[in-house]
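User: Some background: our group keeps a shared notebook of sequences we're curious about, and every so often someone picks one and asks for a predicted structure to add to the entry. Today it's my turn. The entry only has the sequence so far, pasted here. Could you supply the structure so I can complete it?
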Amino acid sequence: MKRRAVLVTLVGVGMLTAVLAPMVGAVQQPPAQPRVVTVEKLKDNLYVMGGMGGGGNTAVFIGAAGVTVVDTKNPGWGQPLLEAIRKVTDKPVATIVNTHTHGDHVSGNVDFPASVEVVTHANTAANMQKMAAPSGFPPATTNIIKEHGGHGLPRRTFTDRLTLGGGADQIDLYYFGRGHTNGDAWVVFPALRVMHAGDIFSGKNVPLLDGVNGGSGVAIGDTLAKAHAATVKSVDQIITGHSTVMAPADLLQYAEFNKEFLAAVQAGKKAGQTVEQIAASWKIPARYTGYAEPAAMRLLSNVRVTYDEIR
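Assistant: Of course. Here's the predicted structure to add to the notebook entry:
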């Protein structure tokens, strides 16, 4: 089944709306759109659940004893997500894995039962305590995790690698380095040869480099290449953060794309250009066909994050 790609610009709009909502409550708003979770069956026991405005792609892995959910979407989407899960299995949700800290991937945690174990990278656990707005966004005015008394925070963390379960139910968590944030977890279902990459590989687009939460324009290309090298022989399909399911070859190309972006910023800085000048002149290289044009503010923010890292 083919799923329609969601451009990364829509991701930014969704996250920004969540951030600004408390500030515009006095203004008459249009009727809220229904929260409809889309369901794609990727394998007999693995589903990808999306939904316009819902945030990042969710993976639902049905094991013998319970369900593992990877990422839980925007505020208000946890309950619709639970309802969608109940339509494909009567097994309880046992585990949530959050790929990183952003609100469009972790906010639904608060709607899941307290019995559900939340697992993240150690840096993501620290970032979720603060829930700081990403680079290029206005400062956060709310913290959904704190508003729910810390419910939804991880109780289990890892640094380099962690294996959950075993046999056909095994899930391997990896950390290959900084990129989108400093806590990007790669989630591999080895029996199915499928990996969830989260937003360090959100799709064929300019990534959000979140320096506020430890992301790196200098490191992301190498991190992506390491992920490809470590998993290319064991993974056939990659669930992206916000787009369609892709292949290892797409991941390798994305690593090269981000390395070329770094090289462009390095060359611009060496030539004495400002952040604004580099952003104004940068274009997606012609060979990266199908890559989405970035929003101007996304591009400017990424150049600034990368520029400031270069010494």
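Suggested note for the entry: The two ends are 46 Å apart (CA to CA). The chain is about 30% helix and 20% strand.
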